[in-house]
């Protein structure tokens, strides 16, 4: 069976019950400053390593669960201290500099985390050092709860298994979003709770990641059966 569009892929993934033990948006603590930290730390590493770093940051009371204070803490932290706390995530010096600079720029340009969430756009984010398209869209969707579909290497590999080779990021993103938008009413009816388009995109991305984890990252020896 050939998947014709992202709606068919979405319904297939939903049937796999992949997010039964996950938060409602899949990513933890959606809408908080911690999402920004996680989105930077997860670059080129496994999420399990990021969780260790987040735990260290919480123990050091750099991340205290108060968005504005957390933002200020990161903007003012000593870079060497931050490096030591996030060492488990790899590339600690680079990520430390990126986090500190990003937080300083958020305060300089927006004044507060709340204002950042309300006003930031894709162009501003992509202009910040160390933020690529996947990180940008993760922040927009999971921190700002915007209607943005995050795509990644798993999204690309899964489509290869479906018979589509779409290498360009925006084209890949459009393929995933298009079927959702064209069948939004049908998707909403699949849930027994109110769900927004932004949350649907978040859960779609989460389903892809969790499905990849169960299937060896969609490596060459993986065969997709519908």
Automatic annotation (TrEMBL):
<dbReference type="GO" id="GO:0051539">
    <property type="term" value="F:4 iron, 4 sulfur cluster binding"/>
</dbReference>
<protein>
    <recommendedName>
        <fullName>HhH-GPD domain-containing protein</fullName>
    </recommendedName>
</protein>
<dbReference type="Pfam" id="PF00730">
    <property type="entry name" value="HhH-GPD"/>
</dbReference>
<feature type="domain" description="HhH-GPD">
    <location>
        <begin position="41"/>
        <end position="200"/>
    </location>
</feature>
<dbReference type="GO" id="GO:0046872">
    <property type="term" value="F:metal ion binding"/>
</dbReference>
<dbReference type="GO" id="GO:0006284">
    <property type="term" value="P:base-excision repair"/>
</dbReference>
<keyword id="KW-0004">4Fe-4S</keyword>
<keyword id="KW-0408">Iron</keyword>
<keyword id="KW-0411">Iron-sulfur</keyword>
<keyword id="KW-0479">Metal-binding</keyword>
<dbReference type="InterPro" id="IPR023170">
    <property type="entry name" value="HhH_base_excis_C"/>
</dbReference>
<dbReference type="InterPro" id="IPR011257">
    <property type="entry name" value="DNA_glycosylase"/>
</dbReference>
<dbReference type="GO" id="GO:0003824">
    <property type="term" value="F:catalytic activity"/>
</dbReference>
<dbReference type="InterPro" id="IPR003265">
    <property type="entry name" value="HhH-GPD_domain"/>
</dbReference>
